[in-house]
Amino acid sequence: MKRDGVSRRRQELLDLSARLFAERGYGATTVRDIADEAGILSGSLYHHFPSKEAMVDEILSTFLDDLFSSYREIMARDLGARQKLEAVVVESFECIDKHHHAVAIFQNEAKHLAQSERFSYLNDRGQEFRALWRQILEEGVRSGAFRPHLDLDLVFRFIRDTVWVAVRWYRPGGPLSAQNVAAQYLDILLDGISSRRGRSRVANGMSPAVKEKQRA
Amino acid sequence: MKRDGVSRRRQELLDLSARLFAERGYGATTVRDIADEAGILSGSLYHHFPSKEAMVDEILSTFLDDLFSSYREIMARDLGARQKLEAVVVESFECIDKHHHAVAIFQNEAKHLAQSERFSYLNDRGQEFRALWRQILEEGVRSGAFRPHLDLDLVFRFIRDTVWVAVRWYRPGGPLSAQNVAAQYLDILLDGISSRRGRSRVANGMSPAVKEKQRA
DNA sequence: GTCTATAAAGGGATAGAC
DNA sequence: GTCTATCCCTTTATAGAC
Q1: Does residue B20 contact residue B34 with C-beta atoms inside 8 Å?
Q2: Which of A154, B4, B163, B216 is most exposed by smallest CB count within 10 Å?
Q3: Do A17 and A82 form a contact (C-beta atoms < 8 A)?
Q4: Which of A167, A183, A137, A68 has its CA nearest to residue B193?
Q5: Cross-chain Cβ contact A158/B188 below 8 Å
Q6: What is the predicted pLDDT for the residue at A7?
Q7: Quick check: A28 CB within 7 A of strand C?
């Protein structure tokens, strides 16, 4: 009983601060803002958490543990590269739906937080994320599911950023489900927006003005 | 002579603060940080600028004026939808190259800054940006350059976010030119990463597990 | 679990000398 | 164009009463 009561209040405060960190930014949210929102005074927060930093730490690591646990399950399944890609993208959008505030905080603050020792695990997760995606992409190119001659590092960054940046406009409970957005996103990523009759590789089809400017 | 001297120093301070705002975040950068970097004391900054807010305001509006001036030129040219799309994407990556710090600040801070009256022009620019992209996409669907039945609002957000978020990893003067990144990006956006033999619409080709979960 | 009260540090900005 | 000196406010965090 007592433990439930304690952790319930704790979790309430954590959810509430996650919302404020996501909406206003971690740095711009003061412990007084959090306390006001909870209807208590700022000093009382320190009964539950040792510091503001500890709060955002718990928010982020909870989200990341959940995400990577799901990713590892997918990678352990016996799927082709294309199916793995589809599954990971769907899982990512579902995670944006489920951990919306945490994902928003991660997107906005990870780069700065990761510079401090305490949040070095953010860099580790980034490495793990890259390895996972490279594996899927390389396997897909080998098997012929994806086009050859792709710059896989660029494709990786492209996919990573395009998926997660959706947290900026996606709204849980809104008109589009995570699965629907994932499907449309995969549609573009895999097949492009060009019509079949208009379809052509950019290297062949891009306007002369663009081609002239290329150097690399 | 005197005017040049004044504006040169002013511009130095503006460039330097843009770098710090981009690297550390606007809120996390203090006027003392800026002054330290410039080798002067914080009070001296107020000889050049009325406030810290005025500095970031000037950085952002300079960048946006330049960007939209280029966009308007492109839209005034007599191009097909696909060529317009290519030109606008290339121009955007060139702008990331040219105004790297300003774009980074815009990406990280615009959402929060736009809530204050002073930065309401950020919302106006966002509207203008959306109108421009919708025009290109609608024209392309009508002309048959782009696939029919696309959710154009989603495609717009997809393109907007994927282009600008590249500021997080793109480095001016690095191994990839803006034009090269633009070309690869357009390649994926227009034709996808799927190989020709593996190619199929997601609605038909997605794994059953994904289709089952869709609700909308 | 929350409050009162306050410490200690750091924030943006200003006035006037040089 | 910069410095000296400082104001006033807000910040995170703490100690101990209730």
Answers
A1: yes
A2: B4
A3: no
A4: A137
A5: yes
A6: 79
A7: no
% helix, strand, coil for chain B, step of 5: 75, 0, 25
Which band of pLDDT confidence, cut at 50, 70 and 90, is reported for residue A119?
very high
Q: Which of B62-66, B113-117, B206-210 has the lowest mean pLDDT?
A: B206-210
Distance from CA of B44 to the nearest CA of A (A): 26
Q: For residue A112, what are the β-bridge partners?
A: none
> What pairs with residue A194 in β-bridges?
B146
H helix or E strand, kind and range, residue A63: helix A52-76
User: Which tokens sit at B45?
Assistant: 């900054």
Residue pair B21/B56 in contact (Cβ under 8 Å)? The answer is: yes
- For residues B141-171, b (16+ Cβ closer than 10 Å) or e, as one string? beeebbbeebebebbbbbbbbbbbbbbbebe
> Cα-flanking dihedrals φ and ψ of residue A51, to 5°?
-165, 165
The upper half-sphere exposure of residue B173, i.e. CA atoms within 13 Å in the direction of its Cβ, equals 2
Task: Choose among B27, B186, B193: nearest Cβ to A206.
Answer: B186
What's at A18, amino acid-wise?
A
Tell which residue, A130, A110, A133, has the closest CA to residue A120. Answer: A110
* Through-space separation of residue B116 CA and nucleotide D1 C1' in angstroms: 32
Is residue B193 within 8 A of residue A192, CB to CB? The reply is no
Which residues on B lie below 8 Å from A177 (Cβ)?
A: 214-216
Q: Is the CB of B9 under 7 A from strand D?
A: yes
Residue B37: both structure tokens together: 């970097």
Residue B6 has a pLDDT of 58
For A155-213, how does the pLDDT look when each residue is reduced to its tens digit (9 = 90+)? 999 999 999 999 999 999 999 999 999 999 999 999 999 997 555 554 444 554 454 45
Q: Is the pTM of this model over 0.85?
A: yes
Amino acid at B2: K
Of B110, B128, B129, the closest CA to residue B118 belongs to B110
What digits encode the pLDDT tens for the residues B84-141? 999 999 999 999 999 999 999 999 999 999 999 999 999 999 999 999 999 999 999 9
